[in-house]
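Researcher: Quick sanity check before group meeting.
Model: Go ahead. Protein one:
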Amino acid sequence: MNQSIHLLIADDHALIREGLRKILSIEPRIHVVGEVADGQQAVEFCTHNVVDIVLMDINMPVMNGIEACRRIKELRPNIVIIALTIHDQDEYLFELIKHGISGYVLKDVDPNQLIQTILGAARGDSFIPPALTARVLAEFSRLTSGDHHDRKHQSLTDREIEVLRQLARGQSNKAIAKILYISEKTVKNHLTNIFNKIGVEDRTQAALYAIREKLVDL
């Protein structure tokens, strides 16, 4: 990945924004293009500027991060959003996943882990802390304990199902390519087809779909 990542920091605490900027300045591939103090400013900035990734706090004045995420994804669906928060409460995570976030990182995250999460998100990967992943899986298991199933995946080819299963296990595109003996470009093409067929917009939603439909054993 040689292209610079244009990143926006959205947090209502100036000291946190300054600290994040200093941490991210270590990585030459990440270019902080702006800082905003509330969700409304984040939406406006993304509307008028080139942004690849938003590092988004949840609790902000004027407009919170969840609503800002929803609006940004409606206006600019290609923008990647990573939630950065002190909260590990399930309802925040479920709402953000529903609106298409690519990562959920707690504010006590190791700086290197934060950088790697951003670089991974730029490649199309997603990240949710393992402890929170377990809660998500438990909740989806509870919600899908009945007999209702969405059969969109029946239109997937055998290869697409294999790719989807590997994605749900947390594998990156590079890892999937190695496991299935195909190129990364082929993996990306399969993922595009999978997303279209099952009606999702990103890797996180696709992984949760696979889990909900019991296409993968974790």
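Researcher: Fine. The other one?
Model: Protein two, sequence then structure:
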Amino acid sequence: MSAGWPRGRAGQAIGLLGGSFDPAHEGHMAITLEAIRRFRLDRVWWMVSPGNPLKTRRPAPMARRIAQAERVALHPKIRVTDIEARLGTRYTAQTIARLTARYPGVDFVWLMGADNLVQLHRWQDWRQIVDTVPMGVFARPGDRLAARLSRAARVYRGAQLPMRAAEGLARARAPAWCFVNLPMSAVSSTAIRAGGDWPAG
């Protein structure tokens, strides 16, 4: 259920997967389930954003995207939420700052695909993000090399944990990030929209 604030208790390890989810699909689910397993997470919150500041295209209505996400996220450890709209934040750094203040003692982990690591340096206050919470990065087809050579990866090379240490990521002190190389589906929200299975508006 997306209504209300998600529950988070001190001592829990909670993954944060943000995005437009326009629409949510099996790739989001694959990342989430692998994150729960690899990083020993108690919960993962899907944060359906009002909009992406780096994208000019307007997403489908929020209620529609949340409803689709809830149809996909059929797992007891996944919570679909409109928390960014509730917080009134526009940028990820702001959202994380507000969440860490609102949920003291919760060990948050920011989850993202390797394609986002490539462009992370373009995000507002991106260093603040890396310095505040550990990050779990998942390989997507075609993005592995670019992600490893990205500006963020180079700047924080010394903070990278090996895959064999992934289960300790949530308890690690930021900056800390772990790159998980997975054989993943090439499905994407962009491809789904282009195929006409998710009409605009």
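Researcher: One line on it for the slide.
Model: The CA atoms of residues 35 and 140 lie 14 Å apart.
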